[in-house]
Each structure stands twice: as structure tokens, then as C-alpha cells.
Design goal:
202 residues; Glutathione-S-Trfase_C_sf; Glutaredoxin; globular; GST_C; Glutathione transferase GstA; 2 domains; four-stranded mixed β-sheet; 48% helix; Glutathione S-transferase Yfyf (Class Pi), Chain A, domain 2; transferase; glutathione transferase activity; 4 strands
């Protein structure tokens, strides 16, 4: 399998899951600025929308959108228990968390990474993020993980989304449970391996 990625972007989430799954994979860098691969290939020929992640299977089929990719990977290795069984309440809860992170956290970071965003838009995005992270803080006050009190693909996604805050002036220091969560997830060997492969370790 190939994972088209950009260092530290949302593609880090499926990269972590690939490492957790122990599946062989090739990383292919795709520039989010030039939309080209290192060999000059136009990334739009890989994903017409021009963004990462893209998972390319060995037969050439491609899958986009992080929440779908991480569940696909996890289902390949059920013994790793990265997601609960399909059709269970527990699986639906993981999907709920993935959707929340994607729409309420990930999406609200967008304006903060966009230079053309007005200060009014940025302020509104930050306010929403603080509110949504407060919800996450409440979850983590009860359990070590955000679904079923067991590590899952949703935790990998949350770890990545929370890591963006320091780059855009979103202060999360008051969220002590989230800080402990990020440290805990960041120390996992698979996470360390993904960070190292993307050149994100100091």
C-alpha cells in the first residue's frame, strides 16, 4: 500500500494507524503547496481534490478521506483491535468520535491556516475550537481514551488535530486531561515511528 501524505497534516492520522497495524506501506510525499509529488507528478491526477491523505491499495484502487481510510486499515487487522467490530454500538461510537473530530475540530482549524481569513473569521474559529476541546476534556476526565476506554483510530485522529493548536495560537494548556492524553498517545511506539518517518521529531 501507498500513503500519500504531507508531514504533520491530517494524513498523519492514517500513517499512525498503519504503524499501529504493522502493515507494510510506502510513504509518498505530496506537497500541499505545489500539489506535486517529488517526481513532478501532478497530485491532482492522484486525488482530483488535491489534498491528502490518499491510500493506494496494491491493486491500484485509491481511498480518500481520513476517517474512511483509518477504519479500512484497522479492519485489515482485527486482532489489533484498533476499531470495534462492524455493526456494534462500540464501532458506531468510534465513528461518532471520528465525525466529531473531522467536522468540529479539523474543519475549524481550516480558517486559521488560511492567510486570507479575516480576523473575525479566525476569532470565531478559535472560539468554536475552545468549546469543542472543552467537550473532549470532559470525555478524557472520565476515561483515558475518547471511545470505549480503549485506544482506537479516533484517538490517533484527535492526537493529530490537537497537535495543530500550537501553530495557530490556540492555547490548550488549560485542558490538562487533553495535555496528558497527547503525551500518552505521543509516547506510543507506533506514533513515535510515524513522527520520525515524517521528520517531526526534534
Amino acid at each position: 500500500m501507498k500513503l500519500y501524505y504531507s508531514p504533520g497534516a491530517c494524513s498523519l492520522s492514517p500513517h499512525i494507524v498503519l504503524q499501529e497495524a504493522g502493515l507494510a506501506h510506502e510513504l509518498v510525499f505530496a506537497s500541499t503547496k505545489t500539489h506535486k509529488l517529488q517526481d513532478g507528478t501532478d497530485f491532482y491526477t492522484i486525488n482530483p481534490l488535491g489534498y491528502v491523505p490518499v491510500l493506494e491499495l496494491d491493486d491500484g484502487r485509491r481511498l480518500t478521506e481520513g476517517p474512511a481510510i483509518v477504519q479500512y486499515i484497522a479492519d485489515l487487522v482485527p486482532d489489533k483491535q484498533l476499531v470495534p467490530a462492524a455493526g456494534s454500538y462500540e464501532r458506531a461510537l468510534v465513528q461518532s468520535r471520528l465525525n466529531f473530530i473531522g467536522t468540529e475540530l479539523h474543519k475549524n482549524f481550516g480558517p486559521l491556516f488560511t492567510p486570507s481569513s479575516s480576523e473575525e473569521v479566525k476569532t470565531a474559529a478559535k472560539d468554536k475550537l475552545m468549546n469543542r476541546f472543552q467537550f473532549i476534556e470532559g470525555l478524557l476526565a472520565k476515561d483515558e481514551y475518547i471511545a470505549n476506554n480503549q485506544f482506537s483510530v479516533a484517538d490517533a485522529y484527535l492526537f493529530v488535530a490537537a497537535s495543530w493548536a500550537k501553530y495557530v495560537g490556540v492555547g490548550l494548556s488549560a485542558f490538562t486531561q487533553l495535555q496528558a492524553f497527547s503525551a500518552r498517545i505521543g509516547a506510543r511506539p507506533a506514533v513515535q515511528a510515524a513522527l520520525k518517518a515524517e521528520g517531526l521529531l526534534k
